[in-house]
Amino acid sequence: xxxxIFIAFILVLTAGGWRYYTGETKTKVVTLCNTCPPGFExxxxxxxxxxxxxxxxxxxxxxNPGVGGLKTALPAVRDGFTPQQIDLGRYLFFDPALSAxxxxxxxxxxxxxxxxxxxxxxxxxxxHTSLKRAAPSLWNVAFNKRFFWDARASTLEEQMTGPLYSxxxxxxxxxxxxxxxxxxxxxRDLFRQAFPQKNNDRIELxxxxxxxxxxxxxxxxxxSRYDQYAHGYAEALTKNEIExxxxxxxxxxxxxxxxxxxxxxxxxxxVIGLAEPDHTFDVGAAKTFHxxxxxxxxxxxxxxxxxxxxxYTHSGRFEKLEDMIAFYTKGRGxxxxxxxxxxxxxxxxxxxxxxxxxxxxxxxxxTLTDESFKPQTPEWLPSGIKMExxxxxxxxxxxxx
Length: 401
Ligand code: HEC
Ligand code: HEC
Prior knowledge:
Layout: H1 2-15, E1 21-22, E2 25-26, E3 40-42, E4 48-50, H2 83-94, H3 106-109, H4 156-165, H5 174-182, H6 185-194, H7 205-216, H8 225-230, H9 239-249, H10 255-258, E5 269-271, H11 285-289, E6 297-299, H12 321-327, H13 355-366
Antiparallel strand pairs: 1-2, 3-4, 5-6
Helix pairs in contact: 2-6, 2-7, 4-7, 9-13, 12-13
One heme C is lined by residues 253-255, 257-259, 270, 272, 274, 298, 300-301, 303, 306, 309, 312-314, 321, 324-325, 328, 345, 347-348, 361.
């Protein structure tokens, strides 16, 4: 009888929370979140659909948003993921287990507290490798049609195979990533929760990409003071900020020709004529589109949350917003090295902005800051790798040696 009770006890334990007793370490049992993140509505078929006031606005002629209008419609959004896929993507995004040596995660270079950038002129990858370009912010990537500074990827899924498998960034391979995740019982359980329809226990790489994309697509920032103003609350901006907005939209400064609301990017590439810090010229989008007239062209970055993502440009040239804005007023082509022939965009001109106008533009860009949908950093990772958080609200150091 005693023996029977003991066996029954063990069976109960096995069926319960101790399922993941693997070797020496007990793995926590986690249930993925079943509600959609803020800004999303859950549909009857358990999908998260993005909702925003901007979706009530129509554009004048179909797809042409025009420039500078306050009540301008948004481009199509990447949504329709399940709450569980989004939550699993959050764990994957922060987990250094996805890199070759367990030292670096997506969040190492896209830190929530640094506008999902890293505060460096150019990023640093695995084994302290210096990269050639700066980490762009991930806010509002759900609306992007092209990814990377040179626009070389056209989906979030395609984009992430870049950092994952680059020997300079996370340094892993599809085989290694597949093995690592399949060898972690906690991940096998979480993927079963996120893909309940699957009938086997194997994690597929396509599921990994889906979840990370699902998470990235929730990083939406459209509730800034500028947005309140755009939706009709006139008091949301100060006099100086409204003056900045008006300069920004003016035909003299022409900022909205490229940094078009509501995303503050027209999603195109443009040659603005920046010099490179180390003198090796980055041809940018010329390579992507096999078009020599695009030599030195880069994707127009969104200015949302730009106040949080210094230093600026693809090569991290400018420390301060004011320095970046001053670039536009120092003369068309003033930085182009004499050895390079660039076809500078027609909207780059010489607006002769005064110092106070540069300050007003910077004031205005600050009104585009909104982190109200910033996701929570996980306190625990399914790989068992420890999250090192320095201070509450401070940036993470993810076991970076
Ligand atoms: C070592 C630093 C580093 C790591 C790790 C890293 N990134 Fe990046 N990320 C960058 C840099 C640098 C760029 C720009 C590269 C370029 O344009 O050539 C970039 C670009 C991007 C972009 C394009 C954004 C846009 O608007 O064009 C996305 C999306 C992105 N990363 C997501 C991720 C995800 C997801 C992961 C993890 C799987 C990841 N990154 C890991 C540094 C990093
Ligand atoms: C012809 C299109 C165009 C016009 C007009 C333009 N920009 Fe830009 N802007 C760009 C491009 C392209 C970049 C990225 C350049 C690079 O990294 O090489 C950029 C970068 C920036 C950045 C840095 C953002 C970041 O995250 O690194 C700021 C700030 C900025 N522009 C503000 C302005 C302001 C203010 C004006 C008006 C005075 C303006 N821009 C006019 C195309 C334009």
